[in-house]
Amino acid sequence: MTAQLKSPAQMTNTVLQAENLNIYYGKFHAVRDVTLAVPKNAITAFIGPSGCGKSTVLRCFNRLNDLIKSFSLRGQVFYHGQDLYAPEVDPVEVRRRIGMVFQKPNPFPKSIYDNIAFGPRLVGYKGNMNQLVEQSLRGAALWDEVKDKLKESGTALSGGQQQRLCIARTIAMQPDVILMDEPCSALDPISTLKVEDLLQELKEQFTIIIVTHNMQQASRASDYTAFFNVEATPQGRVGHVVEYDRTEMIFQNPKEQATQAYVSGRFG
Amino acid sequence: MSELLQNRSLQRNPWAPRTLFSTTMSGVVMLCALLALVPLIAVLGYVLVNGLSRFDLSLLTQVQPAPRELGGGVGNAIQGTLYTVGIAIALAVPFGVVGGGSLSEFVRDTRAARWIGFATNVLSGVPSIVVGAFMYGAVVATTKRYSAVAGGLALAVLMLPVIVRTATEALELVPSEIRQASVGLGSTKFQTVSRVVLPAALPGILTGVMLSVARATGETAPVIFTVLGWHTWIGSVWDQTNTLSLLVYKFATSPFDNQKSLAWSASLLLVLFVFALNVIARLVVRRRA
Lengths: 268, 289
Known about the structure:
The complex is a heterodimer. Chain A is an alpha/beta fold. Chain A has a domain at 14-105 and 178-263: 3-Layer(aba) Sandwich (Rossmann fold). Chain A contains ten helices and ten strands. In chain A, the strands form two sheets. In chain A, strands 6-7-8-3-9-10 form a six-stranded mixed sheet, sandwiched between helices. In chain A, helix 3 (112-122) runs parallel beside helix 6. Chain A starts with 13 loop residues before the first strand and ends in a 5-residue tail after the last helix. Chain B is an all-alpha fold. The radius of gyration of chain B is 26 Å and the shape is flat. Classes of the chains: A alpha/beta, B mainly alpha. Chain A binds chain B through residues 62, 64, 67, 92-93, 95-97, 99-100, 102, 104, 106-110, 118-119, 121-123, 166, 169-170, 173, and chain B through 175, 177-178, 180-188, 191, 195-196, 199-200.
């Protein structure tokens, strides 16, 4: 049940590549043997039931799991061929290139302007900040709604606007990859649609990986889909990748029975 | 309808035991709340009535009168208070905030953090007179003079645990989501703390600082041994001086009416200062939030 495609057939330009990735929290084996390649300028969706390790794998791609003390990892993650977990790699630099949008909108308790300018200021951006802020807000389809209140607090916006603010904040760093951890799960359907439309524009410039519980979202919005599942073992529940392919293959012609059952809603 | 509820009315019965109990208890609770306000209002009222007669410009600008002398003010005690409390702020705020920051951000949940937290609690329980006596031995005896510096050191020791504790609590309240957002954008640990966590916790930290300043300004015991008291203006922080709290302590027990009424006015000044700090602390919190 663990047939894993290293890379889908038509994949050309790989940005991120996981090789036999195993993730542990202390002694607990959370994720087993993940091997997959993430293509450039495409949207890759991670789907699967709760606890299957999709967010955990996502967080390995920008070393956010480093914040968890008990976290350890076996295997490798390559970013443009460079091992992200090599001892000489600075996780801070990794996170500047591989941005993250979280499940719950988490704007800083600062003005809208300062939220966007935060990242560029970290690296001492010398260019025209006003222009960068406008460009980032336009990029996140938020400019028209907030252009007259850039000095107001980011936390005063609605949930959907806050999430687009967080996306704008991430793209202001002009990263290479954007990781999104269930970015729409706290949003209403209209805000969700706005974010999905936005994804299509963003993929022209960025490589996007999105974790989602919403299968319609994966089938609508993504180019590639990895289906994760969780397996009960005597040591606990271990997540793994069941199948990874072009999105239409996963949803219309999956090779694995488990995938078929999950995407058709007959999970079990 | 179930048999259990069949014969019961939907209407509220004012004479039902539980309604009566509720009404009585509401009254009792209200009364207790009002009683708790009585001491505050009584103290404020008493100080206001007695202190207002000498509450004028000369109170602030003139030095304290000698026995049997008429007129005068408490200007020199205000100067001494500003010096000692200023020194205490300059010492306790940076150490307290950095200490709270390291407890909350860098060594949280470690053995070291537990010990430092415990030590802070012990320090906040040390009686202020003991701190004063210690500073007498450590500073006054070694420099061979009473001074604003010695008083400031004693007050700083009293302020420190309050600031450490409020800073730690304020910082720990900053949600982990925005810390992660900062780390996710590529902040170093230091950038996360200095640019996100500290600004977000600032209202809480400032409130702690203001309250500890208010507390230190009113402290008398630690300055008895360290500042001692002085009758006129001073030129340097190394000079022996007076504070408002010391002046109240001495003039209130003086046999001379002029000094007694100045003690009331100085008390009013202290109360107003504490009140103003509290109001400012609240305004800061509200503006930031």
